[in-house]
Amino acid sequence: MKTTKLNLLKAVIMPMVLIFTAAIAHAEDGAIRFSNNAFKQVISKAADGSIQYDYVEPKLVLPDDVILYEIKFENISDQAVSNIVIDNPIANNSSYRGGSVTGDSTDITFSVDGKNFAAADALTVKDASGKTWQAKPEDYRAIRWVYNKPLKPGETGKVTYKTTINKP
Amino acid sequence: MKLLSNNFVNNQIVRQIARQDDNDRSSVTSVLFFLVFVSAFIFSSLFPGNAHSAAGDLISNTATISYEIGGLPNTSNASTAFTEDRKINFIVADSNGGAAVPVISDMVDAVMQFTVTNTGNDINDFLLTAVNTSPNPYGLPADSFDPLPASIQVFVESGVTPGYQVAEDTAVFVDELLPNIPRIVYVVADMPTVATDAVAAIALIAQVAEGGAASIEGAAINADDNSHISPAGVFSNGATNMAAGAAVTNPDTLSMETVFNDPAGANPEDLSTDLVQDIASNGQHADASAYQVAPPVILTKTVTVIDTLGATDPHPGATLRYQLDVSVAGNTSVSNLVITDPIPTNTTYTDGSILLNGVAQTDADDAPVDFSRAVDILSKPVVNIEVDLSQGGTVDVVPGDLNVIIFEVTID
Fold first, then answer.
1. What is the pLDDT of residues B229-252, one digit of tens each?
2. CA distance B288 to chain A (A)
3. Is the same domain home to B254 and B306?
4. Going residue by residue through chain A (168 aa), what tens digit of pLDDT does each one get?
5. Alpha-carbon dihedral of residues A92, A98, A104, A110, nearest 10 degrees?
6. Where are the beta strands (DSSP E) in B247-337?
7. How many domains does one find in chain B?
């Protein structure tokens, strides 16, 4: 009961703290250490002509910039954790970049309404005339990863995806 | 940016409420609802449809993990957030159809047209000024004169009546420009006495300024947070003096920074307010157009063949009917306008054939009966016809009036 209260308090306070202070956060409630970090993608060309991708703190972010979200989870308990599901709505002012999602040992689905999830090729949207089309990546509003095995004590997992900051 | 400041206001109110006693809560809550309502109203009126300012928006993301441990369900959240920085970008473009604006010597209020388009992610005001420039953005002939000193003014289309309207289009700065919706801007200037074909190139320069309250000229943004600055300038038809920006390099933070991202002027005549070609990322952009002096009188001549058999074969004896359409260009009246047309060789003037706007004219030099004549009508042959549209210097011919002169000759 006390833990639940604490969690509730955290759920209220954490976003407020985030708004005013930090860009990154992680939570340690019980069995899972859970973190979510955003990085700006910086592309540069090395001397040998190869393209280098760097991911830096998102201090300077303008339209068309690419953001990498990295969501990590770690079993910090002494028991196996099962039925892990990670849900992540796409951030405001942002569009999912097609094909960018990763997640080892996960089944990945997307949603255009935040409620119904399906594989990318099974998602549809309706246009103004009521015609149904296959959803485009920028139509996605949420991503769901279902971790398809137990997470043993000390084990970690990571899922990532990228967004583009919308044009004005 | 406004949205964010509203959020901050509301958040501050929320925090203040948290400190209030329970007794005060209901009244404070109603104030809060009122403020939320007002904010929503401001938001909806400022950002119709999808157009919105994104600069300063907090981009936040919360992931949720749910799992079971020991058969018990549990969930946890992790959030991350950063601020979308302010990208200043905009385009000034000449919209005179890719050619010089025809004017006439001594014309008053000659109008050229531009658009200003905000391609950044904030809602901004734009200060405006127009300056003499060179070379002619349309090539030849070369830029050769300037409009009358101090006559160059800039006004913004009000949206009420298309085209420049003196009474309506009085704003001297672009107010609250949403991204991607062009605003029309007019440069208005008076011409000196200049010869036909002379060219005066003019650059319109826009300077980014803070949005904010509608109808109030925002403060110029003359520096970004990355050591880019704007040169000093005078805007708003002389009313606004802007100092050059001071270069500052502020460290990138998770709060909003301003980034000048405006392009350079495309050509040497596209100046910034330091009167050199506009450079990228200086909070200004410019494009140039030009006035070109055209003859004030537009004269077109057509001929119709009327042969003796009623057909159109120009054989000897056939009649040629000439029609001269005379009008005045620009917006200034013309005085002492006399039209003279020689009778072609191998033709003979048909006596009494002059018509002015459908009214038969005498051949005699008999003003003020009429102001037309066939020269040498008494000694013959007639060498030319002459029509004095100014009626002996008593009448000015005004722009928009069409005078039609018709006369006939026969082929010898």
1. 999 999 999 999 999 999 999 888
2. 27
3. no
4. 444 444 444 444 444 444 443 344 454 457 999 999 999 999 999 889 899 999 999 999 999 999 999 999 999 999 999 999 999 999 999 999 999 999 999 999 999 998 999 998 899 998 889 899 999 999 999 999 999 999 999 999 999 999 999 998
5. 60
6. 258-260, 284-293, 297-306, 319-328
7. 3
**In this structure, are B240 and B361 located in the same domain?**
no
Q: Chain B within 8 Å of A63 (Cβ-Cβ)?
A: yes
Task: Name the A residues in 93-132 with CB < 8 Å from any B CB.
Answer: 93-94
**ipTM here:** 0.82
Kindly list the domain boundaries of chain A, sorted by start residue: 1-27, 31-165
What Cα–Cα distance (Å) separates residue B267 from each residue in B113, B136, B137, B334, B351?
Answer: 18, 10, 8, 37, 59
Residues from chain A contacting residue B180 (CB–CB below 8 Å):
168
Report CB contact under 8 Å: B80, A92.
no
Tell me the CATH number for domain A31-165: 2.60.40
Per the structure block, which two tokens stand in for B91?
Answer: 């385009």
Integer Cα distance of B224 and B282 in angstroms? 9
- Verify that B180 and B285 share a domain, yes or no: yes
DSSP string, A106-126: EEEEEESSSS--B-GGG-EEE
Same domain, B350 and B385: yes
- pTM for the predicted model, two decimal places: 0.74
The pLDDT of B179-184, averaged and rounded, is 96
User: Any idea what the CATH number is for the domain that residue B119 is in?
Assistant: 2.60.40.10
pLDDT digits (tens, 9 = 90+) for B277-330: 999 999 999 999 999 998 888 899 999 998 777 777 788 888 999 999 999 877
Same domain, B231 and B101: yes
Residue, of B28 and B339, whose pLDDT is higher: B339
Asked if A62 and B179 come within 8 Å (Cβ–Cβ), the reply is: no
Residue range of the domain that includes B16? 2-46
